[in-house]
Amino acid sequence: MRKTTINLIIIIAVLCIFGCNKKENDQKTQSQHMDNIKVSNYGVTAKGDSIKKYTLTNKNGMKVEVINFGGIITSLTAPDRNGKYEDVVLGFTKPEGYFNGNPYYFGALIGRYGNRIANAKFTLEGKTYEIDKNDKPNSLHGGKEGFYTKFWNIEPVKDANFPTLKLTYTSADGEEGYPGKLFTTVLYTLTDDNSLEISYEATTDKSTVINLTQHSYFNLSGNFTKAVTDHELQINADKFLPVNETLIPTGEQKEVKGSPFDFTVSKPIGKDINSDDDQLKKGKGYDHNWILNGNGMRSIAKVYHPGSGRIMEVLTDEPGVQFYSGNFLDGKFDTKTGGKNEFRTGFCLETQHFPDSPNQSSFPSTELKPGQKYQTKTIYKFSVKK
Ligand code: GLA
């Protein structure tokens, strides 16, 4: 045999062995990821649905717990500067808290439309749709039987690189007043760099509107009785959307510069929250949508808790984020770390399209037509400052 042929055979053999090993290793990692998802019984709803809890664990020991009711994240741990993992998301102490209305939308997947739609109606392709009016004159977070009250099908994903859950829900044509049968898939992935990645997809059989989001409340101190006003927040946004008395955007896109809404440079959430400002009065604090700078997948916000050293960074491809400083938390429920869920003991950074987009033609469109695919992604990444 000629030397070049022999060399070729050797190269092919080496590549084969390497390839087989890689495949074996990949399979090993994938099955390890399946081992990193544990399923347990969580509770039974009034309708008789038996609810399961899925616990994802990454290689550092970070854990995320998700239930197939509302796609709710019931717990998420993150390390402090000493490496101590503690739960940093608000939630109820008993399953019934979630099953009986979840008045604060703790941890939930929100659909079909995150945030408010004015007067609970909109017109699409010449037809007016009346949707559920659950927030004074408006519709909030998809209505009182929105996605956060639904039974989601959950499957651990076998061929994913990290522990991943696939959640699916089909919303019937006309559900809560929205047109079109909507097929929704959400992936929750817990990566080894302590990120929770949330990928949303949907298709419809009739033109409709859609704005999915996640409603976790964070308190990076790990103590849910403490106010989050000491957390330092930075938002990459030069403008925000002022609102009317019922928290519907007026349509104005206002510069944050020189106002309490300026988070372009990191500052404590509490620094300007009690300023004499008409917008802060309307929201009882911050409950507004910031118009994020740039587009495509990008880092849009960072929160730092000086006491624990915990940092949470938010990345998204969405145009907006609702920063809500927990102004409707009212001490009616026990927290997971004792005490009650008092005023401003949690904050949300809900990535989304702008509120009331179906009624505001100057906002980026939230329409979804048959044949199109709705796709969006958000990442909550946890780290520490020593
Ligand atoms: C959103 C809204 C708030 C409030 C909370 C839930 O963040 O913008 O006004 O309704 O949900 O309490």
Could you characterize what this model shows?
By secondary structure, the chain is mainly beta. The chain folds into three domains: 1-35; 37-97 and 107-211 and 369-378, Distorted Sandwich (Beta-galactosidase, Chain A, domain 5), CATH 2.70.98.10; 228-360, Beta-galactosidase, Chain A, domain 5. It is 11% helix and 34% strand. It has helices at 3-35, 95-99, 278-283, and strands at residues 37-44, 50-57, 63-67, 73-79, 85-87, 109-110, 116-117, 121-124, 127-130, 139-140, 153-156, 164-171, 182-190, 195-204, 208-209, 213-214, 232-235, 239-241, 254-255, 267-268, 287-291, 298-304, 310-316, 320-324, 348-352, 367-368, 374-384. The strands form seven sheets. A nine-stranded antiparallel β-sheet has the order 11-12-13-14-27-23-22-17-20, with no helix packed on it. A five-stranded antiparallel β-sheet has the order 1-2-3-4-5. A five-stranded antiparallel β-sheet has the order 19-18-21-24-25, with no helix packed on it. Strand 8 (121-124) and strand 9 (127-130) form a beta hairpin. The longest helix is centred in the N-terminal third of the chain and has 33 residues, at 3-35. It is globular, with a radius of gyration of 23 Å.
Key attributes of the depicted protein:
mainly beta; binds alpha-D-galactopyranose; 9-stranded antiparallel sheet; Beta-galactosidase, Chain A, domain 5; 386 residues; 3 domains
